[in-house]
Amino acid sequence: MRFRKLKKQQKRPKKQKEANAIVYATIPVRMKAFITDMFMIYIPILYVITYIVLDGKDAFQASNWAPFFGVFSYGLVYTFLLYKFAQTPGKKAYLMQVVDVKTHEKIGYFQAWLRFVAFLFSATLLLGLIFPFYRKDKRSLHDLIAGTIVIVTKD
């Protein structure tokens, strides 16, 4: 047998990946989905609070409670979307789902809320957002706390 054919046989993967293999969402795609969620969910909430509930940007900036209600409202919407659909608009746009790490099924409401609160904590520290760079399964600190994982969907 010729050397070229032997070399080609060595390059072929010995095991074919299963059709149902779990594919973890990459960090850049997760960041794009997060930015999309900010524009589609959080900005409209802030707009409503600033210009409909309050008298404008000066009242928003003077208020201590307005930013809290904005984040709280975003948390409720985010949690509901993860609980109901396992996706937010950004995750749907980039074909991702947030599922339970053990069962790979949709997460419960408490688990989704825990993930959001843990995200606020890990984003504040910035340490929790570095975790995916060092893990094969690309899980952040809030994913570890809540027992979730972000996977790529087929459709």
Give the topology.
Blueprint: H1 3-11, H2 27-53, H3 57-62, H4 66-85, H5 89-93, E1 96-100, H6 109-125, H7 141-146, E2 148-152
Antiparallel strand pairs: 1-2
Helix pairs in contact: 2-4, 4-6
Description of the molecule:
This protein is mainly α. The protein has one domain. The protein is 58% helix and 6% strand. The chain contains seven helices and two strands; from the N terminus they run αααααβααβ. Strands 1-2 form a two-stranded antiparallel sheet. It starts with a helix and ends with a strand.
- Note the gap between the termini: 44 Å
Helical segment tally? 7
Query: Uncertain spans, ≥5 residues at pLDDT below 50?
Result: none
E-strand count: 2
What keyword list fits this structure?
7 helices, elongated, mainly alpha, 155 residues, single chain
Q: How would you summarize what this structure contains?
A:
By secondary structure, this protein is mainly α. It is 58% helix and 6% strand.
